[in-house]
Design goal:
This protein is of the alpha+beta class. The chain has 2 domains: about 160 residues, Ribosomal Protein S5, domain 2 (2-Layer Sandwich); about 140 residues, GHMP kinase, C-terminal domain (Alpha-Beta Plaits, 2-Layer Sandwich). The protein contains 8 helices and 14 strands. One of its GO terms (biological process) is isopentenyl diphosphate biosynthetic process, mevalonate pathway.
Length: about 325
């Protein structure tokens, strides 16, 4: 039987309302709903084919052979759905720094979910793709869709998946990414959030506040209230990072340059240029702004950061199959 190869492209997403903590580690069920914006600048292309001659899964990331333990666990889910016994050949190219707080796992597992399911002969709906991608990385559930996306926490495998809030954005909106450090994080998201759940005295308040923030930001998006949306996103991010500092032992993903970028955003805002920052589990700062203000903001940022540290992104699309050239 001829080997069928499928290649999928998925884009990263940046959470504006964070999830920080899992209530089920195996199923990757979050403690709270989250909301993100899919970006066009960062993406992963993943090629998958099942081959009966393989003795185990083969996985290459950016042309380098990788350990297959985690990938095989994910591929076992695909094999079970498709009643397939063959191992797979997986080649993935990340157009985003890996494990540096820029959501590379989101685009990686969203692309893998589509390419692997198609190669296995499955025709999954987008909710089903979201459920599958979630089993590799929680945030990958959101990268199935473009634009603004909400991941519903659910209570089991079937009820936890992402839904689109608004995919085709007709809005003067963009995001500037200040790349502080591309290196692998010292504390993984998985380890960090579990430590917070177990030791932060403020975690119950975070869950309640995250629910309120989610409701408020969805209203702001619907009403096209950029200032309100940006304020909620910025404050939600700072509450999440405050949890890390209240853990035992406490930890932080911030670096001095992260603080510098945040202070510059606050200075710009005081001058009437409305922009807002957010950070995930890493030092890199993402700045929400209007497209019309982006050139002025970039000019100011270049006084403190190198040109190659500054990347401009807009709303990106959901996962899709591509033709490999």
């Amino acid at each position: 039987m001829p080997v069928k190869t499928f290649t999928a492209r998925a884009h990263t997403n940046i959470a504006l309302i964070k999830y920080w903590g899992k209530k089920n580690q195996d199923l990757i069920l979050p403690m709270n709903n989250s909301l993100s914006l899919t970006l066009d600048h960062f993406y992963t292309d993943t090629e998958v084919s099942f081959d009966q001659t393989l003795k185990q899964d083969s996985f290459y990331l950016n042309h380098e052979k990788q350990d297959t333990a985690k990938i095989t666990r994910f591929m076992d889910l695909v094999r079970a759905k498709a009643h397939l016994n063959s191992f797979a050949r997986i080649n993935s190219i990340n157009h985003v720094p890996t494990m540096a707080g820029l959501a590379s796992s989101a685009s990686a597992y969203a692309a893998l979910a589509l390419a692997a399911s198609k190669a296995a002969g499955l025709e999954l709906s987008r909710p089903d793709l979201s459920r599958l991608a979630r089993r590799g990385s929680g945030s990958a559930s959101r990268s199935i869709y473009g634009g603004f996306v909400e991941w519903q926490q659910g209570h089991d495998d079937q009820s936890s998946y992402a839904i689109p809030i608004e995919e085709d954005l007709n809005w003067d909106l963009c995001m500037i990414v200040v790349v502080i450090d591309k290196a692998k994080k010292k504390i993984s998201s998985r380890v960090g959030m579990q430590l917070v759940i177990e030791t932060s005295p403020f975690y119950p308040a975070w869950i309640k506040q995250a629910e309120q923030d989610l409701s408020a930001i969805k209203k702001a998006i619907k009403e096209r209230d950029f200032k309100k949306m940006g304020t909620i996103a910025e404050e939600n991010a700072m509450k999440m990072h405050a949890l890390n500092m209240s853990a035992s032992p406490h930890f932080s993903y911030f670096e001095p340059a992260s603080i510098e970028a945040m202070q510059l955003v606050e200075l710009l805002r005081s001058e009437g240029i409305y922009c807002y920052y957010t950070l995930d589990a890493g030092p890199n700062v993402k700045i929400l702004c209007s497209d019309k203000d982006s050139s002025r903001i970039l000019t100011r940022l270049r006084t403190r950061f190198a040109k190659n540290q500054l990347l401009l992104a807009h709303s990106g699309p959901g996962v899709r199959l591509i033709d490999k050239k």
